[in-house]
Amino acid sequence: MTAKIHPVVLCGGAGTRLWPMSRRLLPKQFLPLVSERSMLQDTVLRLSGLENLAAPIIVSNNDHRFLVGEQLREVGIEGAAQVLEPVGRNTAPAVAAAALEALARDPEALLLVLAADHMIRDVYRFHEAIRAAAAAARGDRLVTFGIKPTEAATGYGYIELGDPLPGRPGAFSVARFVEKPDRRTAEGFLASGRFAWNSGMFVLGARQYLDELAALAPEIAAGARAAWDKAACDLDFRRLDEKAFAACPSDSIDYAVMEKTRHAAVIPADIGWSDVGSWSTLWEVSDKDANGNAARGDVHLTDTRNCYVRAESRMVSVIGAEDLVVVETDDAILVAHRDKVQAVKDVVGHLDRANRGEAVSHKRVYRPWGWYESVTDGERYQVKRIMVKPGASLSLQMHHHRAEHWVVVSGTARVTRGEECVLVAENESTYIPLGTRHRLENPGKLPLFLVEVQSGSYLGEDDIVRYDDQYKRA
Known about the structure:
Layout: E1 5-10, H1 39-45, E2 57-61, H2 65-74, E3 81-85, H3 91-105, E4 110-115, E5 119-120, H4 123-137, E6 142-147, E7 158-164, E8 172-178, H5 183-192, E9 195-205, H6 206-216, H7 218-229, E10 232-234, E11 237-239, H8 242-246, H9 253-258, E12 264-269, E13 273-274, H10 279-285, E14 294-296, E15 299-302, E16 308-311, E17 316-319, E18 324-328, E19 333-337, H11 344-353, E20 364-367, E21 370-378, E22 381-388, E23 396-398, E24 402-410, E25 413-417, E26 420-424, E27 429-432, E28 438-441, E29 448-456, E30 465-468
Helix pairs in contact: 3-6, 3-7, 6-7
């Protein structure tokens, strides 16, 4: 029987170069940057039609666990396993944890390792490349995908193709991996026709990868194994042991294994690939008007050329501009020359040093029970709009420093307040005094919307004492 292919989607990363859309709590892989779906959703959906495909394994951090589950459910993906990293340790340990997860289900598992935030236009050729890579990996090869270069790019690593592999159509040995080159070197690579961009996608036998990792990077192999063996399972998540995983060396799969193994192979692929690593890259891959502009949202352009303009919450007009990136969100606006967008990560660094919330989240913050968004705030008060999904419930909790007043806008709320439990209908309200145990639930079949007015000496989200929580948050 042919071994099943287990998609492994690496869902970490902060996407700081795509600020202000990408934030720490909602990074680029969860955003609809290329299509109407999120990049994670596009990643899993483009696998539809492949043979011998198992349910995906998603490796993400703890903060994004419910977001991953919700986005997969939205597009009908069922049975996915979620492996949670307590800290980031790069791709080699992450893939090791995923390999252990796959082997627990299938002793002959093949891993198809993908990033959650890549774009691929030609799905048919992508599937053909996967089939060729799987055929090579079912032998004794650890296979990477090399992207046919379209320009002398200096932002990607390169792979030099060696000889064709006998009996493995489309596969080549790897002559060498090359770090990001300078312009002159990249031009030479492009002219030679022997080099491909390093995509960071792989097909690997799960057991062979772990064996090679143990031989070439034994500390990583041991650390990932210890974190797996001590992992805790709750709800649909497998939580790697924090102490063991934190002690695991941090390294990429390329450095730890692929550049050292004698079993590396490469499948050259012309699949319309992009890592969508910056706003200039997003401009390059977007559909454009006759003046070279890519626009999304409520945008009006006059005498404007070769710009990327995105409006998320209000109308944006650009007049007489060239080669700009303009991105508007509900709480921040970016204006940059397309040649300077790599400096966006420096803006995020500035926000972090200033302890500014714009680096962390948007005004709308997603939770497993729904979302909340800030409407306004001032000294000793804050107003939020809250949506609770049907059947969902906030934790039973208490605040030391604030009281809350809830006004139901639509739907019906079940409110626990101290020892009483009451239903609050549309246009009705309730008051939660400081220090009172309380819970908000939506017992209905439609979303519950309400306005929350907080008042007190401290209004931070960390002023929550949880007594009971169906989502098992601390």
